[in-house]
Specification:
11% of the residues lie in helices and 36% in strands. It has 136 residues and is mostly beta strands. The chain has a single domain, classed as Immunoglobulin-like, CATH 2.60.40.1610. A hairpin with a 5-residue loop joins strand 3 and strand 4. The protein is globular, with a radius of gyration of 16 Å.
């Protein structure tokens, strides 16, 4: 991807600063009702990241190709008062507050890559821990 010549689809995506070649999503997690699980698929052919930020705009964790690799994985996100056992095979991401801003990014290589990038981005999901155990 040439950063000076982004795909024309970049004008259809949320763009900020230099992130004109990524699909972006964001949301706020409310961990007062319990822990959440972040599931990421294997993403082997592109950059992706999920950034965790507190309400003071301080990043405290990242999941993605540059930090955790390209393999599929599940990550338990817990608030400050959470008690319990981390399920086998999961890494824990501890938040210091019950409100967490998450920002996801998935690289779009060119115009024809947009459907593939979107399909991968849709596979990154959050699941309440109680739903995980219930098999939902």
């Amino acid at each position: 991807m040439d950063p000076l010549n982004p795909p024309s689809s970049g004008s259809k995506m949320m763009t900020t600063g230099v992130n004109h070649d990524t699909l972006s999503t964001c949301g706020v997690l409310d961990l007062r009702k319990g822990a959440q699980i972040l599931h990421v698929p294997a993403i082997t052919d592109r950059y992706y990241s999920v950034q965790f930020t507190d309400l003071n705009n301080v990043s405290f964790a990242y999941v993605g190709t540059r930090t955790t690799g390209s393999q599929a994985g599940d990550y338990l996100i817990t608030g400050p008062g959470w008690k319990g056992e981390v399920p086998v095979g999961m890494a824990q991401i501890r938040a210091s507050k019950n409100s967490v801003l998450i920002i996801g990014r998935t690289l779009v290589k060119n115009d024809s890559d947009l459907p593939a990038a979107y399909a991968l981005a849709k596979q990154i999901e959050l699941i309440p821990l109680q739903d995980w155990f219930a098999g939902k």
